[in-house]
Amino acid sequence: MSQRKKSVSASQNKTQRRSQASLNEDEEASFSQVSSSQVQRARENFTSDQIDRKVAEVVQFILIKDQKKMPIRRADIVKHVIKDYKLLYTDIINRVCRTFEQVFGLKLVETDPKNHIYILINKLDPIQGEPVSMRPVNPKKGLLFVILSVIFMKGGVIKENLVWNSLKKLRVDPGEKHDEFGDVKKVVTDEFVRQKYLEYVKIPHTEPVEYEFRWGLRSEKEVSKLKMLEFVGELFEQDPQSWTQQFREASTVDSSSQRTSS
User: Fold this and answer.
1) Which of 90, 145, 205, 225 satisfies CB 3.0 to 4.6 Å to 250 for a cystine?
2) Taking Cα atoms as reference points, which of 225, 219, 229 lies closest to residue 252?
3) Prior bond of 208 cis (ω within 30°)
4) Coil, strand or helix: which one is 176?
5) Strand arrangement of the beta sheet that strand 106-112 belongs to
6) Which tens digits make up the pLDDT trace of 56-102?
7) d(CA 242, CA 253)
8) Which burial class, exposed, middle or buried, applies to 88 when counting CB atoms under 10 A from its CB (0-12, 13-18, 19+)?
9) Cβ proximity of 151 and 212 under 8 Å
10) Which neighbouring-strand residues pair with 198?
11) For residue 86, which of 132, 46, 137 has the smallest C-alpha distance?
């Protein structure tokens, strides 16, 4: 690509970012400027049956989005579902949250307060007595579980070549097409990253460029580090407490998240 084309492309990207930022600001302003009297009038304009249906529509919209484990944007909820009920957004989303918790055992979590992006996480506790090694219920989740385990046991941040080497030991080569996963590298660096299970971050000042992996927001919310450590203990036939640092972190994080959820 010529220098001129690069310059034009960079200028277009900058313009798009400014435009998106402006839209976000306009959207935020429209929500923050809603008065209590406007909300009250809106409540009087719709029947309870109409609001019930709108709540059900939002629940369905979020469930469909979540099937692909994609983040859910407030702007999309308003544009595609809420529509004329925008003044009642807070009322509706609060009821949606209660529905997810009480009916589905799920929790709607705002992962990006600035851009108002949500994900659904599993709020249900693991079944008592369930073997830890049976937690990953499908091959991709098993692959993810292995990667999260490696990251956790190595201190929370690892270079990508360590991930690939760990997978090769399990006969999963990122350079080859896998019968179960297809393009392994794409699954890990694209799918798991988009789903917020992993963060794939460029390491500054590396030549050639290197990347590192961390747990993503969804993993931090959904995965019990204590259960993961028990899983690793099973694999190596060791007491989880023999990994002192990891056990301390896992115990602290899990007890903290239990207090938060309660």
Assistant:
1) 225
2) 225
3) yes
4) coil
5) 72-73, 117-122, 106-112
6) 889 888 887 877 777 789 999 999 999 888 889 989 999 898 888 77
7) 18
8) buried
9) no
10) 215
11) 46
